[in-house]
Write a structure and sequence with these properties.
By secondary structure, the chain is an alpha+beta fold. The protein is 32% helix and 22% strand. The chain contains four helices and six strands, in the order H-H-E-E-H-E-E-H-E-E. Strands 1, 2, 3, 4, 5 and 6 form a six-stranded mixed β-sheet that branches. The longest helix has 18 residues.
Length: 174
């Protein structure tokens, strides 16, 4: 009888210890595992920002995300300096708004195509973001034009930027 009581206490203490154990003991990834996964993703994906040339708009605005801007009257090339400023604002906006939590990977790992368009006389920028593995032909293609096919992209999202109000609008993820 005494051995049964001792065994019950042992099992109860073991259960309590497992409940209070560190996350990696309970099957959840540890900080180290999470850091390792982020480093692997950074080596795998070609994250960068590119300003598309005027020639990219020959077939209009072709994006991989579900929602495409409507009412487009024309296109313009986003200057590299403006692209850098908008890109920094975008990454901050995604983090502050919580939209980055809807993405499977960090926004920095996506190849972000910056395309300027005109709607009702106002200038906007569309950011077409693609998750593309380094070394794939799509990396080179996406630096010059919209992708012919989104099949090589592991994921995509898009967002519009109003250059007058300096606000982001219409986030759409695929």
């Amino acid at each position: 009888m005494k051995s049964i009581a001792t065994m019950c206490r042992f099992l109860l203490l073991t259960l309590i210890a497992l409940t209070l154990a560190a996350p990696d003991v309970r099957g959840q990834p540890s900080r180290q595992d999470s850091l390792r996964a982020r480093k692997l993703a950074a080596r795998r994906y070609a994250g960068m920002a590119v300003s598309l040339p005027q020639s990219a708009f020959a077939s209009g605005l072709r994006v991989c995300a579900r929602e495409t801007p409507s009412g487009i009257n024309g296109f313009w090339k986003v200057p590299p300096k403006a692209m850098d400023l908008i890109d920094a604002e975008l990454l901050l906006h995604l983090r502050k708004s919580g939209l980055d939590k809807r993405l499977p990977f960090s926004a920095k790992l996506y190849l972000r195509q910056y395309a300027g368009f005109v709607r009702d006389g106002a200038r906007f920028v569309y950011v077409n973001a693609l998750l593309v593995e380094k070394g794939k032909p799509l990396v080179d293609e996406a630096q010059k034009k919209f992708p012919q096919s989104c099949a090589e992209a592991s994921g995509s999202w898009g967002i519009q930027y109003d250059t007058q109000t300096k606000q982001f609008l219409g986030f759409a993820a695929k």
